[in-house]
Specification:
heterodimer; A: alpha+beta; Cytochrome-c3 Hydrogenase, chain B; about 10% strand; B: 12 helices; transmembrane (chain A); NiFe-Hase_large (chain A)
């Protein structure tokens, strides 16, 4: 009998990196006993991006497009976060109009990102129709992005001290039309999902994270709020125009997959509300700070010693120059669709960051996967990965 | 009629059945893509032929000429035999299915048992495919399938007991004839619980959403046929669609009155009598096929343990209750 028992061994399955449901290149090593997961180890590191290291060799403005590529589903928010960090570093004042435009764009990006989330999450659980509905609506927003920024996914639109170019009335009209129609679209997804018995069975009481655990694991965004913890960077440390618009922060109760889903669905409506208010309140004026930082690029990088390049500003504003001297390190964060996205920059008065570090929500969230998965079934792994909404581009910077 | 005569006629019948069936299966894939396309706000096939009508034929040609990749460490014999088992089992079920009065290849007494028995053999194909592929995903898919098939086969069988009790026969033609004796013309109404159990079990038996766990592409990549390609893959596909048609035909025969329509309808609308029976039969089958597609466009997928729970804790007790009720009525009438 003992011999027989020895022969029974656990099945180790690699879920990912090519698995159709492990978003991006996440690799989970699962030790299975039947279909029950005994152990789950997430491995990341297949992208080898090195965004943080690369930015040390690029000027601040040149680093901006790199931030697009981290969380490619909400590149606008990444850009805003980076710009806010640099603005804080040199103490620049952003014009009101630019603040509203940024807020509007960031919320558009949030809707876009959540649409991809609901699409893929539903697909993971087996409902394909939601995927195509969500893609249809995302397309509309991407076209609006293209109208203003010239790009659909990696926009690189905000600038240190404002935004690159102004929005026109045609854009605002189309966006306003979108805000009119979007709540109906959200209802459409909800009719497909919300009262669907199969969906409820797959999500209610599955992948529970208690409020205490969520805080201990450092979770942020809808993943944290699904557990009922009230924390939102937009409310606690308002940036851009968030203190001038009215919105609520949806909270969950039980911290299961359904609550996280519900939080994001409610966020759709809140984002929609913010965009509407931004359009209504959009002030006239410049879109880029007058004394905006313009870093003079070295004429030939080979000829100049790296350390000799200092901030050179076209404006002769003494105040700003003093600011540069004063700040050596800065941390600024924004509420990205996935959670708190923070930029920590150490500045040594050169035109390039001495060190940049990104606090990426996806990376933190990926850490909670083993806790969620161990003891559950194989099918729940997929639902769990979907519910914490990670983007591997950001996870493995 | 001498023996040779019978053999020749049977072969001819089989050939005709086979040809029509294959055409149906090919265009079922087309219909599925169209129906789901409309549910999901897209067009479906549109390029090959008018409205993409030649798409199934193009697909078949492509699949036949595709390279047949067999991984190096598979059990080659079983790997090759598995899809054939599934297909043969799926095809064989049609031997006893009557599509009109006296339109059947073999009118045997135990038709219903034969269909259920042969349909069960298809599971072997899936388990063999899962095991011989030498892949963990395929293996898990195969195991899931085995458990699923066994559980739902029980529910499926039990749900038909009510019909058997009412018809007092296993012969499919007789089951249909018995139904036309009632004024409402179908067992659907007295056997509504049985029909419900049958439809749910039928979805599970054919591995369709929300019970497509053996192939669950987001969990097990593609389940038991993950290592199959080209023509071998298409054989599995064919078997799945044939099973769909078989189950739909069974539902039509046992619950919807087969090729007949309710006598009360004929009484009120006499011209309906001139419509050939096979048309009614096919319409009823297509309704069930559409149900398969519709559900696929709407529902997510159950989890494995939930699937088992539904099978054992809901469907089987329901089927037993149905048998009890039917028996009591039968006894007192």
């Amino acid at each position: 009998m003992q011999k027989l028992v020895k022969k029974i061994k656990e099945l180790t399955v690699n879920m990912g990196p090519q698995h159709p449901a492990t978003h991006g290149v996440l690799r989970l090593v699962l030790e299975l006993e039947g279909e029950v997961i005994k152990k789950c180890i997430p491995y990341i590191g297949y992208l080898h991006r090195g965004v943080e290291k690369l930015s040390e060799d690029l000027t601040y403005v040149q680093s901006l497009p790199l931030t697009d590529r981290m969380d490619y589903l909400s590149s606008m928010v990444n850009n805003v976060g980076f710009c806010i960090a640099v603005e804080k570093l040199i103490g620049i004042q952003v014009p009101e109009r630019a603040k509203f435009i940024r807020t509007m764009m960031a919320e558009m990006a949030r809707i876009c990102s959540h649409l991809v989330w609901i699409a893929t999450h539903a697909l993971d659980i087996g409902a394909m129709t939601v995927f195509l509905y969500a893609m249809r609506d995302r397309e509309y927003l991407l076209e609006l992005f293209e109208m203003v920024t010239g790009a659909r996914l990696t926009v690189s639109y905000p600038r240190v001290g404002g935004v690159r170019c102004d929005v026109n009335n045609e854009f605002l009209d189309k966006l306003y039309k979108f805000t009119d129609e979007f709540p109906k679209k959200v209802e459409e997804y909800e009719t497909l999902i919300d009262r669907n018995r199969v969906w409820l069975k797959r999500t209610k009481g599955v992948g529970v994270i208690t409020a205490k655990d969520a805080i201990n694991w450092g979770l942020t965004g809808p993943t944290l709020r699904g557990s009922g913890v009230y924390y939102d960077v937009r409310k606690f440390f308002p940036y851009d125009a968030y203190d001038k618009v009215d919105f609520e922060v949806p909270l969950g109760k039980n911290g299961d997959i359904y609550d996280r889903y519900k939080c994001r669905m409610l966020e759709f409506r809140q984002s929609n509300r913010i965009i509407r208010q931004c359009i209504e309140k959009l002030p006239e004026g410049p879109i880029l700070a007058e004394n905006a930082l313009r870093i003079r690029m070295p004429e030939s990088p080979l000829k100049i010693d790296k350390r000799d390049i200092v901030f050179e500003i076209y404006t002769e504003d003494k105040q700003i120059q003093e600011f540069i001297q004063k700040f050596t390190e800065v941390y600024a964060s924004v509420e990205a669709p996935r959670g708190e996205l923070g930029y920590y920059i150490v500045c040594d008065s050169s035109s390039k960051p001495y060190r940049m570090r990104v606090r990426a929500p996806s990376f933190v969230h990926a850490g909670v996967l083993p806790k969620l998965c161990e003891g559950s079934l194989v099918a729940d792994v997929i639902a769990n990965i979907g519910s914490i909404d990670i983007v591997l581009g950001e996870c493995d910077r | 009629m001498d023996t040779l005569h019978i053999i020749v006629i049977t072969i001819l019948k089989t050939a005709i059945y086979f040809g029509i069936l294959m055409l149906h299966v090919a265009y079922a894939t087309y219909a599925e893509r169209k129906v789901i396309g409309h549910i999901q706000l897209r067009l479906g096939p549109m390029v090959v032929g008018p409205h993409g009508l030649l798409q199934p034929i193009a697909d078949v040609v492509k699949l036949i000429f595709k390279e047949d990749v067999i991984p190096i460490k598979v059990d080659r014999t079983i790997f090759k035999v598995a899809p054939l088992i599934s297909l043969t089992a799926a095809l064989s079920t049609f031997a006893v299915i009557p599509v009109n009065k006296n339109w059947v290849i073999a009118d045997i007494n135990v038709g219903l048992l034969y269909v259920i028995g042969i349909a069960g053999i298809g599971t072997y194909g899936i388990i063999f495919a899962g095991w011989s592929s030498n892949s963990k995903y395929a293996f898990l898919g195969g195991l899931r399938s085995a458990a699923q098939m066994i559980s739902y086969e029980v529910a499926l069988g039990l749900s038909l007991v009510g019909v058997i009790l009412m018809a007092e026969s296993f012969n499919l033609t007789e089951i249909v004839n018995k139904q036309s004796e009632y004024w409402y013309g179908m067992f659907l109404f007295p056997q509504i619980i049985g029909y419900f159990v049958f439809v749910v079990a039928m979805l599970a038996e054919t591995n369709r959403l929300p019970f497509d766990l053996p192939e669950a592409e987001t969990e097990l990549v593609a389940g038991y046929f993950v290592e199959y390609s080209g023509i071998r893959f298409s054989l599995f596909y064919l078997a799945e669609y044939l099973a769909m048609f078989c189950m739909s035909a069974l539902a039509t025969i046992c619950f919807w009155g087969g090729w007949t329509i309710p006598p009360i309808l004929i009484k009120n609308l006499p011209f309906l009598e001139f419509v050939p029976g096979v048309v009614w039969f096919l319409l009823k089958v297509y309704f069930h096929i559409f149900l398969f597609f519709w559900l696929r466009g709407t529902l997510p997928r159950y989890r494995y343990d939930q699937l088992m729970a539904i099978g054992w804790k809901i469907l089987i007790p329901l089927a037993l209750v149905n048998i009890m009720i039917t028996s009591i009525f039968k006894y007192y009438s």
